[in-house]
Amino acid sequence: MSVPYEDVLRWVKTFAEVIADQKTYLTELDSAIGDADHGINMDRGMQAVIGKLDATPSGDDIGAMFKTVGMTLVSTVGGAGGPLYGTLFLQLGVATAGKDELTAPDWQAALEAAVTGVQARGKAEAGDKTMLDALIPARDAFAAAVADGAELPAALRRSAEAGEQGMKDTIPLVARKGRASYLGERSAGHQDPGATSSYLLLKTAADVWAGDA
Question: How far lies 139's CA from each of 113, 120, 202, in Å?
Fold first, then answer.
């Protein structure tokens, strides 16, 4: 099974809808340990992405589309979210350049590139209470599923489930990076908003590409 360009585009547009639906929740999470703007900023960025994609079609080049998403997020999302999510999509774009469909190995390579890029940009690791706490286990679970011979839909679901657990696992953590790190021990007991939006990104991919949405 492979995911054609049209479904990759549908993933991005559906994610924009999910962020719009969840922006208040994401902002509430951010109000506890951040600047209370993660949902607002991500919604503004994703709405700008939709406008840009509608205005500048990428033909059927998935990589070019991802790069458009990344550059738009960098220029429109405030705080750390813009550079980090922008980097994520730009690296997805590098890994999928020229492709008009994605196989399981394609997505595995793209996830690897995206996570590596976010790590390099944010200088964070697993356990720092950031978006990487959802992305890293999701990446690893997808790779393990592919190695086990799972078809793409099953691998996507396992990836999203691992991302969800990683998101929940941020609750007891003390933040070591980002705005939340200024709170020290007081950052414990709160779910990280970046890990939450990253989980939503992964879940939307599973929902759209595995035929659940």
Answer: 10, 16, 10
Which pTM was predicted?
A: 0.93
CA distance 55 to 17: 18
pLDDT of residue 193: 93
Neighbours of 189 (CB within 10 A): 12
Domain spanning 3-209: which CATH class is it, in words? mainly alpha
**Hunting for tokens 């992964």 — which residue is that?**
202
How far is 17 from 68, CA to CA, in rounded Å?
Answer: 18
**Cα 5 to chain centroid, rounded:** 18
Q: Where would I find the H helices in 77-151?
A: 81-95, 104-122, 132-147
Six token digits for residue 192: 């990280």
**Contact indicator for 198, 87 with CB cutoff of 8 Å:** no
Q: Where are the domains of the chain?
A: 3-209
Distance, CA of 113 to CA of 90 (rounded, Å): 9
Structure tokens at 22: 């969840």
- Which of the residue ranges 59-68, 120-129, 135-144, 168-177 would you say has the lowest mean pLDDT? 168-177
